[in-house]
Amino acid sequence: MIHPNEWPQIRGDADVSTTIKILRIVSEDKKLEHGHSTPLVFDENYKLLGFVHLVDLLRSIRHLCGNPNEPYELGKAVQAVKDIVTPFAGSVRPEDSILKALDLIMNQEVSLVPVLDDGKLVGMIKLSDIFGTIAALLFDEKSPEERQRLLRAYHF
To answer: What CA–CA distance (Å, rounded) separates 135 from 123?
Structure first.
């Protein structure tokens, strides 16, 4: 489980322009890991509403970038980010097994699951984290020679 502070967080009443500015600042300041750039969106009571795909942010300002000979009017990107939020397909609780999160990921075809405790976000689980955990448990080669043989034989 990854602490929610490792993701950018934004209030749903922020406009698209502000959201893009905050994402740029946070991405540069925190040097966000790949996969941690999707902003989590909360209401004013810190209730998780969902997340915003970066492509949806860009889609909402695409019309502002149409004519390269005119100045960009990013101040017109006033749509509230809550209007383009994607709700999570489900969540798990801290005491749930990793398999419950995996089932949710597989059944809903998602790659990110929030961990909620009494409605409060306490963490995020990524598909890549589950994959790494299960792969390590089931398939890690303990022998350094076997690891090297596998890499030589099958890795490009």
So the answer is: 21
pTM, rounded to two decimals = 0.79
Q: How many CB atoms lie within 10 A of CB 116?
A: 18
pLDDT, one tens digit per residue, over 63-100 is: 776 666 666 666 667 889 999 999 999 999 999 999 99
* Last residue of one domain, picked from the residues 87, 121, 136: 87
- Report the amino acid identity of residue 129: D
- Residues 6 or more apart whose CB falls under 8 angstroms from that of 38 comprise 7, 8, 51, 52, 53, 54, 112
Q: Do 11 and 82 have their domain in common?
A: yes
Buried b (16+ CB within 10 A) or exposed e, 1-13: bbebeebbbbbbe
3-state secondary structure of 110: coil
State which residues form the domain around 48: 1-87
Element (H, E) at 72: none
CATH of the domain at 61: 3.10.580.10
Structure tokens at 107: 């059944």
Name 113's bridge partners.
125
